[in-house]
Design the sequence.
């Protein structure tokens, strides 16, 4: 996903989340408006981990606790909770993940069982996020709630693994800098 595709998805995801938070009386409209201004600052600065309405409301503005949202989606929407730190995501799923779309939606597909896809999300209340993943993943989705930290840590770990693998592949592909170090030369 290119940055030009990521930004509109991120904005839709956050706009729909904000509407849902107000609709479910988890946040007041004036708090949402202030948080939206801060969100736009993060987006303009390219701070993808901080470009989250939920992050702004919970950690910067301290309007409510993330646990309030988790309790709401568990109690009112019947979601379970998953901790990706204790879950071994299959390699075939890890290698195909588009990190930009995961950051934009604060969601991670983490398993597949036959036609069912399992998606961990901190943004379940955003109808734009659910619609996006329903379009991207064929078959039914089993949604699981998780925290932003859990999503962020998973995505940062995966990016670090990819960076290390790319560095190793680049080193293996380039000849040694010192011809004397290479006896075949």
Sequence:
């Amino acid at each position: 996903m290119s940055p030009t595709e990521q930004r509109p998805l991120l904005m839709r995801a956050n706009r729909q989340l904000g509407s849902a938070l107000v609709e479910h009386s988890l946040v007041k409209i004036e708090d949402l408006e202030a948080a939206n201004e801060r969100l736009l600052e993060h987006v303009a600065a390219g701070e993808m981990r901080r470009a989250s309405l939920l992050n702004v409301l919970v950690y910067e503005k301290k309007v409510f606790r993330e646990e309030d949202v988790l309790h709401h989606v568990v109690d009112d929407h019947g979601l379970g909770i998953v901790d990706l730190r204790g879950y071994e995501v299959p390699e075939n799923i890890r290698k195909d993940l588009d990190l930009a779309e995961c950051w934009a939606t604060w969601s991670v597909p983490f398993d597949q069982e036959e036609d069912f896809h399992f998606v961990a999300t901190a943004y379940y209340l955003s109808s734009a996020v659910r619609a996006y993943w329903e379009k991207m993943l064929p078959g039914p989705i089993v949604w699981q709630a998780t925290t932003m930290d859990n999503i962020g840590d998973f995505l940062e770990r995966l990016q670090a693994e990819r960076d290390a693998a790319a560095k190793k592949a680049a080193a293996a592909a380039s000849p040694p800098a010192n011809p004397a170090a290479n006896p075949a030369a």
About this structure: Residues 3-171 form a domain with the GMP Synthetase; Chain A, domain 3 fold (CATH 3.30.300.160). DSSP finds eight helices and four strands in the chain. The longest strand covers residues 107-113. The beta strands are 80-81, 107-113, 116-121, 141-145.
